[in-house]
Amino acid sequence: EEVTESDDEDNLSSVLHQRAKMPWRACGKYLSAAGILLLPLLVLSQLLKHTVMVAIDYCLARWTSDAISGKTELELRNCSTCEDFNHSPYSKVFSILCCLGIVLCLVTSIAVEWTGLKVTKKLHSSLLNKIILAPMRFFETTPLGSILNRFSADCNTIDQHIPATLECLSRSTLLCVSALAVISYVTPMFLIALVPLAIMCYFIQKYFRVASRDLQQLDDSTQLPLLSHFSETVEGLTTIRAFRYEAKFRQKLLEYTDSNNIASLFLTAANRWLEEYIGACVVLIAAVTSITSCLYSKLSSGLVGLGLTYALMVSNYLNWMVRNLADMEIQLGAVKRINGLLKTEAENYEGLL
């Protein structure tokens, strides 16, 4: 019995270890199917877009800070004939950056959709060729529903869901990195606390991804019986009233609703816990370092406001990054399943084609 219990514990630990791992092979298969030219375009457009977004915010902060300091200087001099602050150079730079950001957003969206379309076409074509040339024993041992599911549900996930999740994941990741970079630039003292924060975030997201994925699957699995019971009740409403089973069906509907609400409540609580816990730490450290730098090194008010604004947004960015990472982990299972069928050996046929 002791050996059996230890074997069960080892199996459970191995399963949890596999669940905590990111399917990097499936991710590499998806990205490699995009091609050599399209993948660098996707990465470069994302980097340039978020660089321009940070530059726009920095330009606004510098513009505000210089305008306030210029106005303060005029008031101290008490000079009525002095020229007012010139806003023209700042407005020109701001307009150019905004136009460039709009163009880069369009290029990024086109690159993401183009990547998803190319990957879907390539995987679908490869899968179709493998299935057509598969030996007869493959169709005798593999259920037909499983094959149809690869061509329908999994191809639909690769076509519609993965590109959108990939764009959201890359956007939230780069926004989080750029926010931390801006805070570190405004207050270099933040770099001292960045290392323990990064280590803490790594371990938290490692365990949160597993819990978030399980809670999301639990939410989906409890929602299906609720919708099925509701549709069946509506369709058989005449029969239910004839046999006077209204109370029984109402009670069953409430039970399914409670089950789905519990799963949804735990999922929402987990997401809020991740956002509030780490975000509070980042905001506290950024606020203390910004106020200290403002008092002792005369940091401009515009840069202090920029750092605190990014600190307040880090929690939201980090939350979306982890949630999108968990969604991407689930959706890459479709690529993994299709990749498993692509390893099917073709029929050894030497006849005429």
From TrEMBL:
Keyword Hydrolase among UniProt keywords: no
TM spans (from-to): 30-48, 93-112, 179-205, 277-296, 303-322
Gene Ontology molecular function: any one: ATP binding
Key word ATP-binding present: yes
Entry-linked Gene3D superfamilies: ABC transporter type 1, transmembrane domain
UniProt-listed CDD domains: ABC_6TM_SUR1_D2_like (cd18602)
An example Gene Ontology CC term for this record: membrane
Alphabetical keyword list: ATP-binding, Membrane, Nucleotide-binding, Transmembrane, Transmembrane helix, Transport
ABC transmembrane type-1 domain boundaries: 41-329
SUPFAM superfamilies per record: ABC transporter transmembrane region
PANTHER family: ATP-BINDING CASSETTE SUB-FAMILY C, ATP-BINDING CASSETTE SUB-FAMILY C MEMBER 8
Protein name: ABCC8 protein
Organism: Todus mexicanus (Puerto Rican tody)
